[in-house]
Amino acid sequence: MLRRRLNRLLGGDERRVDSRTIYVGHRSSSTTEAFIPPKFCDNRIVSSKYTVWNFLPKNLFEQFRRIANFYFLIIFLVQVIVDTPTSPVTSGLPLFFVITVTAIKQGYEDWLRHKADNEVNKYPVTVLEQGRKIRKESEKIKVGDVVEVEEDETFPCDLILLQSSRDDDTCFVTTASLDGESNHKTHYTVPDTEKDLESLNATIECEQPQPDLYKFVGRMHIYKNEQEPAVRSLGPENLLLKGATLKNTQKICGVAVYTGMETKMALNYQGKSQKRSAVEKSINAFLLVYLCILVSKALVCTTLKYVWQSKPGQDEPWYNEKTQREKDTNLYLKMFTDFLSFMVLFNFIIPVSMYVTVEMQKFLGSFFITWDKDFFDPEIKEGALVNTSDLNEELGQVEYVFTDKTGTLTQNNMEFIECCIDGFQYKYRDANSELDGFCVTDGPVNKVQEKAGREREELFLRALCLCHTVQVKESTKQSQGDGLIDQVDGFGVDGEVPRPPQEQRGFIASSPDEVALVKGAMRYGFTFLGLESKTMKILTRNNDVEMYELLHVLNFDPVRRRMSVIVRSKSGDTLLFCKGADSSIFPRVRQEEVERIRMNVERNATEGYRTLCVAYKYLSAEEYAQADAGLREARLALQDREEQLITIYNQVETGMSLIGATAVEDRLQEEAAETMEALQGAGIKVWVLTGDKMETAKSTCYACRLFQRNTELLELTVRTLDDGGRRREERLHELLLEYHKKAVQDAPPVKAGVTRTWSSATQDYGFIIDGATLSMVLNSSSESNSSRYKNLFLQICQNCASVLCCRMAPLQKAQIVKMVKNSKGSPITLSIGDGANDVSMILEAHVGIGIKGKEGRQAVRNSDYAIPKLKHLKKLLLAHGHLYYVRIAHLVQYFFYKNLCFILPQFLYQFFCGYSQQPLYDAAYLTMYNICFTSMPILAYSLLEQHICMEVLLDNSTLYREIAKNAMLRWGPFLYWTLLGVFHGLLFFFGVRYLFSNPALQDNGQVFGNWSYGTIVFTVLVFTVTLKLALDTRHWTWINHFVIWGSLAFYMFFSFFWGGIIWPFLKQQRLYFVFANMLSSVSAWLVIILLILLSLLPEILLVVFRKPRGPHARQKKPVQSSMGGNQSPRSSARPLLMRTFSDESNTVI
After folding, report:
1. What is the DSSP-derived secondary structure letter of residue 190?
2. Which residue intervals are annotated with compositional bias (Polar residues) in the record (predicted)?
3. Per-residue confidence band for 16, with pLDDT thresholds at 50, 70 and 90
4. How many helices (DSSP H) and strands (DSSP E) are in the chain?
């Protein structure tokens, strides 16, 4: 890596080419030229951030980039340089504590990364060198080495497959650690390679490393006995990726093409962009306020000091004459040093330890999501996963949810329902299924009436059996006993079609749709038997085995939205079979055929089924020769291979004949409707973003109760734009204005008191838009129109109950999320999806959630949180999110409050000590107040508090609205807490001062001094702020009891201990026996108890005198009202926002 950076710096990259040449086995292709092996990076993986040498400087630099840490460093340096009233230890020790704790946490995390790297780098592998097998450490593999991998081993680097133990020269791999897909993928050896790899003389020319897991272009030159070298194309099907695992294959040999940090897995390892929560922004705003308070206090004290000293005799009294050096000091310099001294004295108003407490709270709090048993899914035997703990509280602030449809709202568990051949419907029924209007004319089970003609039926079923990339699982003795299970959807095919036991098979496929279609063909008597040596075998319903030579596969891609195969029958006919979305097939077939099929396709889509159209084409010898030559040439290209292939695909897939269409059902996720209803009840807007057809997606929205039967749908699609008979742009403008008037201008005003833009009136409208129309809205021909359209579109959507965006490309999903995220009010957005096409919107939203579904784990890898099922989103937001937000909001407000209580008496004390910067508290108290005496109770509270129990939060989704829009960290609650801190600070100081109006407080008439004064104030302070938290605690556990009463006991013990011993390392011991003497005075006891009671009296009175509002919030089930409905346990806004102890929050232990 260092070499690469130096090259770039010195201009070496100018000579960098777009491809690399690799010598297989490090053997030169030429016997005459000297072989100089090219230099590539080694196979070491480095995911760690630090080394032993750079850890300290790098970590310190990163920590001091945080403004709070840097501020306290400056204060510490001022204390060291300037003669300040407090010891540098008072700010140095807390800062050291924060820096050390953070460094230990980050160091430990990096040590784990080092450990994981070493496990990978030291893993033993087998390398073939000069005909011998040599065991090496993985990190010593070089580009060009021939590596042997056995079954169930992971590939140590990116390899080109040269040899496989399987007869058909293929191997199976799983890529679960790369994209999470647990299904078996088939990879192929390079054709015409030597069986004896020792004699193989070849070079590989391929592209430079790039991160796309599914893209690879290259070619292999094979040299044989002075002949012209044979050239073979290389693609993703020949590349075995590091991290993937070999399955169902005894062993393979491959040549290393990318190693170490240039492997695709390493290139995909990148930190996601840092997401910041709204709470962090509030903390920064509050910090600025408290910084202004600090500066103003220092300015006031500095000004008053010089005003007071300007009076005669005050500046230089007879008992404190100035030295000559003091007299010669510049006045302005002295004023500046005094200002800095006051800043140091009052700097504890800024809570440095709050940052480390917040970090610990987020880190430890995230375990509650991982440990929640309700999130455990027995099917996949996994629970929830937290990829980032920085956004826990953001889960309680979500205003918009953007959800994918397939695999998120639905199960991605496909079942063949029916097909349509030449306009005639064929619906398969089980013997037990009920008759419906469409089934009556169909024959008995496994018998199809020849409505479309036997020849057309068989052509259609052959297309289903041949046009796919499904593999048949090999039958083993064990699996025959257990019954084979399909790799994708987990449903066996046993018993669906009567077959002899040896014919029962399971299927391996990359998509559940393909398995469903192959199984659908089986139901009608056509069985796919497998692919052997480029020959596809199918068993017809006459029990004849037909064989087809597979010539080419024109792979599926999301742009074309179709896939094709070219096969040759035994009779010599060359056929192209194609299946895909209706929008991509209909323009490529004869239009008179379309009308026969379209009605069935639209009806199936309306019923919520996924539809695919099937077409075919006979290729003449000339057409096939032209297509074959074009495909071979495109596959050998190193530059723009994808574009060249798509061009050839489009040329071949024209002039086809439409045979029919299929309908596959993708069932709703369990509790999908209840989850969506709960989210809407919580005031969250739900948008569905999908690539599916509008009719299919619309029926799913109805099933999920996002659209109600009385919802008026506002449709903005290509169909509605073409209705008006005018230019699309004009029609778009007209429709936007019409919908805006209906949904925005004529809509009744939102009810007062509802915190979100949500009312029952908005539920009357649902909005539907497709990808093509969205492109027109976002990318209009004129910039002014585009901005205007976008604003109109956004306002309409914000006033609709739900929005459906269909036919969306992945990038469009991200564009929509970004548009809403950046709209007025900056609402908090959440994206949830399960596939690679959802990654862009997951990364774009404030909170990204991945579902551990069947479309791979790329969404999970890129998400902030991952859950097994959609139904878990309800508890994640309404219970966990709600509680996380309340806890951390209370933590932040409480920290500012307790530090204001702490430092205000110090400020008031200056008015009574001639502004001499005399500290009120001992240095030990200043240092340990935030670290020891008051830190653990608030940490325990912020982890364990449940102001309302989880069952009630889940039963009453409206409670989520109470904390919307950062309600507990707005300026109102902040002002309340600040005023409370001022009240308590004034009470502590002047209450103790009233006691000291008669300073002879002991039996022997001995007078208390200033350190006794400060100690009494500090004792009242520690007890009051801790008991205030005890009053706010509504959910008591033994941990709360332990830390609250333990902290108070520790303070008492420490004060006795600190003042009861003569410490040899202290120059002066201010508190020697002060605490013990203080407690020997009955007056001191009386004042301490009275002041604590007076401070907490307002909150105690609130508990006693407030009338009950609503049912008991701690009870497990909502109370039935007299009208028979469920009463909402909503509390009044004030007790929740101000966090006072109310009747609805009585403690349950």
Report:
1. P
2. 1118-1131
3. very low
4. 37, 33
* In contact, 578 and 405? CB cutoff 8 Å: no
What does pLDDT average to over the chain? Answer: 78
Task: Decide: 838 and 820 in contact? Cβ < 8 Å.
Answer: no
Residue 731 annotated as part of some ligand binding site:
no
| 347 labeled binding residue | no
Q: Which of 372, 404, 922, 1032 is catalytic?
A: 404
CB-based contact 842:831 (threshold 8 Å): yes
**Distance in angstroms (rounded) separating the CA atoms of residues 575 and 656:** 11
Q: Which residues contact 376 (CB under 8 A, 6 or more apart)?
A: 382, 383, 868
**What are the pLDDT digits (tens) for 611-643?**
889 999 998 888 889 888 888 888 777 677 778
1143 counts as catalytic? no
Predicted local distance difference test score (pLDDT) of residue 1027: 92
DSSP-H helix ranges across 145-238: 176-179
* 205 backbone dihedrals φ, ψ, rounded to 5°: -110, 120
Q: Which tops the pLDDT comparison, 442 or 422? A: 422
406 is in an annotated binding site: yes
**Do the Cβ atoms of 917 and 338 come closer than 8 Å?**
yes
Please report the pLDDT score of residue 1062 as a whole number: 66
Q: What backbone torsions phi and psi does residue 1090 show, to the nearest 5 degrees? A: -60, -45
Question: In terms of residues, how long is the chain?
Answer: 1149
Q: What is the pLDDT of residue 183?
A: 63
| Top-confidence residue, 446 or 349 | 349
Residue with tokens 């950046």: 822
Nearest 10 degrees: Cα torsion 333, 339, 345, 346: -160
Task: Show the tokens assigned to 848.
Answer: 């990204």
**Bridging pattern class, strands 471-472 and 245-247:** unpaired
Annotated binding residue 837: yes
Burial of 628 (0-12, 13-18, 19+ CB in 10 A): middle
Cα 811 from Cα 599, distance rounded (Å): 31
Cα 580 to chain centroid distance, Å, stands at 32
Q: Which residues contact 677 (CB under 8 A, 6 or more apart)?
A: 705
pLDDT tens-digit map of 713-772: 888 887 777 765 567 777 888 888 888 888 877 766 654 334 334 444 444 688 888 888
Q: How far apart are CA 597 and CA 580, in angstroms?
A: 14
Task: Choose the weakest-confidence range: 470-484, 571-585, 799-813, 1016-1030.
Answer: 470-484
Is 286 within any annotated ligand binding site?
A: no
Q: Which two tokens stand for residue 1083?
A: 């007056």
Evaluate whether 72 touches 95 at the Cβ level (below 8 Å): yes
DSSP string, 707-721: S-TTPEEEEESHHHH
pLDDT of residue 510: 65
Specify the pLDDT at position 937.
92
* Two structure tokens written together for 458: 């068989």
Q: For 13, phi and psi rounded to 5 degrees?
A: -75, -15
- For the record, the structure tokens of 673 come out as 């409707």
Residue 374: CB atoms within 10 A of its CB come to 14
Q: What does each C-alpha distance from 72 to 81, 157, 336 come to in angstroms?
A: 14, 47, 18
Predicted pLDDT at 1111: 40
Q: What is the mean pLDDT of residues 539-547?
A: 87
User: What is d(CA 362, CA 909) in angstroms, rounded to the nearest whole number?
Assistant: 37
Q: How far apart are the first and last CA of the chain?
A: 57
Residues 6+ apart with CB under 8 A from 716: 732, 735, 736, 739, 767, 768, 769, 770, 773, 793
